[in-house]
Amino acid sequence: MSPVDRRTVLKAGGALAAVTLTSCSEVKPASAGPAGANLTAAGPDWTAFQKSVKGTVYRPGQPGYATVRQLFNPRWDAVAPAAVIRTANATDVRTAIQFARKNKLVSVPKSGGHSYVGASTVNNGLVVDVSAMRSMSYSGNVLTVGAGAKLYDVHAFLDKYGKSLPTGTCPTVGIAGLTLGGGMGVHTRAFGLTCDRIQSMGVITADGVARNVSATVDPDLFWALRGGGGGNLGIVTSFKLITIPAAKLGFFRLTWPESKAAAVIKGWQKFAQVAPITAWGNVHIDAKSNGTLQIHVLGCSTTGNGAAAAAQLESYVGSKATTRTFAVRTHMEAVKYLGGGTTSARQGWLAGSDVLKPMSANTIAALLGAMKTAARAKLPAAAILDPLGGQSAKIPSGGSSWGHRSAVGVVQWYSGLPAHPTAAQIKAAQTFITNGHRAVKPSSAGGYVNYVEAGRSVSTYYGANYARLQAVKKKYDPTNFFKNAYTIA
Ligand SMILES: Cc1cc2nc3c(=O)[nH]c(=O)nc-3n(C[C@H](O)[C@H](O)[C@H](O)COP(=O)(O)OP(=O)(O)OC[C@H]3O[C@@H](n4cnc5c(N)ncnc54)[C@H](O)[C@@H]3O)c2cc1C
Predict the structure, then answer these.
(1) What number does the ligand 1 atom closest to the CA of 93 have?
(2) Nearest CA to 204 among 106, 95, 57?
(3) Domain span including residue 74
(4) Within this chain, do residues 14 and 141 fall inside the same structural domain, yes or no?
């Protein structure tokens, strides 16, 4: 979700303090626990570890530790890793894995730190932070990028070559987390998911082996890493990604009154299924603190003609939008518009998702009912429906583990939270997400792994691909070294 979207949620929802429910069912961040950390008599030799790597090891109390342990969501600020290593290169990553194994430390990779559940940090364990590995080069239509690059930087770099990538919108999301879990955005229908653009990857597996996986080298791991989600199968150190043209986009923004909400969702659903792959649009249903719902569709066309795509959507909705705005934006104007600028401030939220098969009129009514309940409770909440289809419905060369190729789209249940929410605020947001899941259950094909959430069975992120993913996990990580509540087991 872009900052544009998140701003809308916060504006629509009104005061965060209005949340009133109690208690919380969230899974706590992983911990190395009593059997995890410092098992050797003298504990891990951190001095030797620092000497063995080119990057920097940050330990509690040392300068920089308080900053490097942070994730994007301040909710995880209390999580205290035994150390964070900011790796300088792939060899450091390998050394870190070997050190963690030797010292029985739970270890998690971190790139942009935007995990929805805090999966890129761990109490008492070792965070392998690849964010300093962000170098980029371009040749022959292929971007070579370090696993720590952030999305805005990737776009700004590629723009110099007249190139782009289909990615998500938040400027500070890490290329690794986004790509490994799929990667949806405005180019999804025209060019597929971010993971569909992977030509090869550098990855260090749990055995400490450095691999350069592709359709011909370790093809099973290559298949699994394209959609299997970050943190599961190894630590990716770099990607080779096949680029797309950095073309102008024709944007549209349409609004309808609440009375048209069901027709808009029904029309959007048809749009996602039959509109040309050049057209894209997502529906935002924002719960307002006065108990009403605000409906808009933000869309664009890679042809540059946003008006034509908007007219097509209106024809499926069966009524003209109340307000319409159009703008043609260059590649970088579009990146900044969608991302709300060149960077984004840390913020709190709780979210979940459902991957959608076609919804009946009853299911659409139930979805709107869940949103209305949130609005009446004055919860700062939104449902955002992103389309799939087009190129993303096609299995890329060599196949990939992303499990939902035939779905209509993904609904994200999003609730803005303060930086350090109370248990009652978390509970209220969780209740909203649970209500959303319940509403669309007849059409839910599972969840989107990049919107990973507490309480959802891991298998539901992968559909029919889960058994094969389990087999690949067993082959490359037989001791389950990369393990938390959200990993493939
Ligand atoms: C504000 C915001 C906007 C977003 N917008 C979009 C969007 O438009 N489209 C979309 O598809 N998604 C979007 N997302 C979801 C985003 O794709 C996921 O949260 C993604 O996992 C974040 O990646 P990261 O590298 O920033 O996070 P991290 O927290 O660093 O990593 C996420 C997961 O990947 C693992 N990981 C990190 N680095 C590596 C590595 N090098 N090798 C292996 N595993 C690794 C981590 O351990 C963790 O499990 C958004 C998220 C936020 C917070």
Answers:
(1) 41
(2) 95
(3) 33-129
(4) no
Which of 450, 452, 476, 487 should be mutated for ligand 1, with most atoms under 8 A from CB? 450
Q: Give which of 221, 134, 116, 122 is closest to 174, Cα–Cα.
A: 134
d(CA 208, CA 463): 30
Q: Say if residue 116 is in the same domain as residue 221.
A: no
Is 19 a pocket residue for ligand 1 (Cβ < 6 Å)? no
pLDDT tens column, 348-389 = 999 999 999 999 999 999 999 999 999 999 999 999 999 999
Q: Distance (Å, rounded) from C-alpha 341 to C-alpha 337?
A: 6
- pLDDT-based confidence at 42, cuts 50/70/90? confident
Average pLDDT of the residues in 390-394: 96
Rounded CA separation 466/25 (Å): 25
DSSP β-bridge partners for residue 143: 138, 241
CB 315 within 8 A of CB 200: no
Are 169 and 182 in contact by the 8 Å Cβ rule? The answer is no
Whole-number Å distance between alpha carbons of 378 and 18:
6
Nearest CA owner, ligand 1 atom 15:
450
User: Dihedrals φ, ψ of 298, to 5°?
Assistant: -105, 125
202 lines ligand 1 (CB under 6 A): no
Calpha distance 409→94 (Å, rounded):
37
Side chain identity at 327, as an amino acid letter? A
Rg (CA), the chain: 22
Per-residue pLDDT reduced to its tens digit, 212-238: 999 999 999 999 999 999 999 999 999
Q: Are residues 15 and 45 in the same domain?
A: no
7-29 pLDDT, tens digit per residue, is: 444 443 333 322 222 223 344 44
CATH of the domain at 172: 3.30.465.10
Residue nearest to atom 9 of ligand 1 (CA): 168
Residues 278 and 154 in one domain: no
User: 176 C-alpha vs ligand 1 centroid, how far in Å?
Assistant: 7
Ligand 1 atom nearest the C-alpha of 173 is 26
